[in-house]
Amino acid sequence: MDTSTTTEAAILNPGWGLKPEPGAIVAWGARAIYKSYPVDVDLLGDRMGMAGGNKADRRCLADWINKVGLKLLKEQCATRGIRGDSEEVVRIEAGDFVLVASPRASHGYLYIGVWLQKRASQEY
After folding, report:
1. Average pLDDT, whole number, for the chain?
2. Domain for residue 124, yes or no?
3. pTM of the predicted model as reported, rounded to 2 decimal places
4. What's the mean pLDDT in 55-81?
């Protein structure tokens, strides 16, 4: 019996942002500077991290975040009018990718978590 996914999910901690749900094989998290109008998300190099997965999984997740995920996040925040004093959570599911984010009433930060539930077999 292969328990690597269960064990891996139990210990995934990217160090920043919102933590992944059980079943994640690779996760990325960040605490970004957030401006709600117009919506802007400024990632800080020393406030993000990645955990789990192999090199291919990490590359796949990073590519999705950069090419698709952050754009979807900004669109959702703008459409929903997410303010910096909100506790509201944005959740985006796209195939095997999951992105969650919330200002957590921080008045200036956006806490982000993105993970891959299983190995992606398709292009995004």
Report:
1. 89
2. no
3. 0.86
4. 97
Residues whose CB falls within 8 Å of the CB of residue 90, separated by 6 or more in sequence, listed in order? 73, 76, 77, 80, 82, 99, 100, 101, 102
Name beta bridge partners: 101.
90, 112
Helix (H, G, I), strand (E, B) or coil at 76: helix
N-terminal to C-terminal alpha carbon distance within the chain: 31
Type of residue found at 4 = S
Q: Is 90 exceeded by the pLDDT of residue 34? A: yes
CA–CA dist 6, 83 (Å, integer)? 35
111, 82 Cβ separation under 8 angstroms: no
- Residues with Cβ within 8 Å of 26's Cβ and at least 6 positions away in sequence, in order, are 12, 50, 51, 52, 53, 57, 58, 60, 61, 115, 116
Q: Specify if 123 maps to a domain.
A: no
For residue 44, give its domain range.
Answer: 4-116
